[in-house]
Amino acid sequence: MVMDWLGFGYAALVASGGVIGYAKAGSVPSLAAGLFFGSLAGLGAYQLSQNPNNVWISLITSGTLAAVMGTRFYNSGKFMPAGLIAGVSLLMVGRLALKMLEKPHDK
Q1: Which string of DSSP letters, residue by residue, matches 29-97?
Q2: For residues 86 and 56, what is the distance between their CA atoms, to the nearest angstrom?
Q3: Is the peptide bond before 81 cis (omega within 30 degrees of 0)?
Q4: For range 73-80, the mean pLDDT
């Protein structure tokens, strides 16, 4: 069993972004969204660690964040935090798409 360290790191980045948004601006929606999506990303990383073919929760979570934060970045032009999360989420979508295209390895 191989741990999905990149997935867990992504989950930690998303969750910590929500906590930082709350600490700096007192934004409860930022805290709730960060913890919600960070938890979903963590669950997806755990599932991916258990079964490398089970990419769906990670893919849906990172795809949703890429779309939502990409739109916020486009409208605001501010890299932090929307541009950062949109970029990292887009990289995660690409990584997960490549995982889906890999041929299964025989044991």
Answers
A1: HHHHHHHHHHHHHHHHHHHHHH-TT--HHHHHHHHHHHHHHHHHHHHH--IIIIIHHHHHHHHHHHHHH
A2: 18
A3: yes
A4: 92
Say if residues 44 and 71 touch (Cβ distance below 8 Å): no
Residue listed under structure tokens 């906590």: 19
In angstroms, how far is CA 37 from the centroid of its own chain? 7
69 Cβ contact partners less than 8 Å away, ≥ 6 residues apart: 81, 82, 83, 85, 86, 89
pLDDT for 53 equals 86
13 near 42, Cβ under 8 Å? Answer: no
CA atoms within 13 A on the CB side of 3: 5
**How is residue 65 written in tokens?**
């964040």
pTM above 0.85, yes or no: yes
Task: Give the DSSP H/E element, type plus range, for residue 12.
Answer: helix 5-25
Query: Which amino acid is it at 107?
Result: K
DSSP run (H or E) holding 106: none
